[in-house]
Amino acid sequence: MPEVAVTALELRLQKQVESARVAFERGRYDHAVETAAAVLREQPSCLPVRKLMRAAQLKLAAGKGGLFGRMLSSVSSAPFVLGGNLQLKDKPQNAVTAADKLLLADPNNISALTLLGQGASALGWLETAVFACEAARSCEPDRPDLNLSHGLALLAAGRAREAVQAAQDALRVQPNHAEAQTLLRNASIAVTMAKGNWETEGNYRGKLNDEAKAAALEQAARLSSKQTPPQD
Question: Of 7, 20, 164, 181, whose CB neighbour count within 10 A is largest?
Fold first, then answer.
């Protein structure tokens, strides 16, 4: 299923989204989260609803102070990440579902955001993958691996200029990062080509886009495998 706009949802769900928006505007963030989550359980590819839910979650977390954030961070995500890796091979939707469950408890759980990005990429939800990777990056902006994942997602989504910046951010912290160097080169080529005649380079354009998608999935999988504890 492709990513869908709010206007493409059935009327019943559109009304729920409107209810969540009103709740958010009135500061009823718990109701906004609950209602948005209910919509996402039926239509997880609706990115505007996902963004609304995260905004409400962050408001709630901020309102409950540092102790609340530390409690959330103490939740172990290993079982979700491991399960997501297994599910991602055949049913990436299950990885998204697992990530969403963990993010309801902690919207800044980097493992869960990475898992969401994996599942979204596998499902072809390119902007949702960008959203997830950007959210993870915002939690720890100086981590080269998170900048790299964000850049790969941006490039796969056709946002080459932003991918260049993400690659540069990764290289600022770790100048010899080979994958970030490759991303910078590919993203820079895409920017240059966009200034010229894309039509005459159609085959190369498609090849570059396919490689970006594959690289994004490979990097996300590598990140999760590093986070998964070794088996006895």
Answer: 20
Measured between alpha carbons, how far is 36 from 46 in angstroms, rounded to an integer? 10
- Yes or no: say if 190 and 94 are a contact pair by the CB < 8 Å rule: no
Q: Where does 106-201 have alpha helices with state H? A: 110-123, 126-139, 144-156, 160-173, 178-195
Give the C-alpha separation, 137 to 200, whole Å.
Answer: 35
Cα 53 to Cα 22: distance, rounded to the nearest angstrom? 12
pTM, rounded to two decimals: 0.77
Please identify which residue in the block is written with the tokens 């991918």: 163
* DSSP one-letter code for 8: G
> Reduced to 3 states, what is the DSSP secondary structure of residue 27?
coil
Q: What is the pLDDT of residues 13-67, one digit of tens each?
A: 999 999 999 999 999 999 999 999 999 999 999 999 999 999 999 999 887 754 3
DSSP 201: G
Element (H, E) at 3: none
Q: What is the 3-state secondary structure (H, E, C) of 180-193?
A: HHHHHHHHHHHHHH
Q: What is the mean pLDDT of residues 163-178?
A: 96
Convert the pLDDT of each residue in 120-142 to its tens digit: 999 999 999 999 999 999 999 99
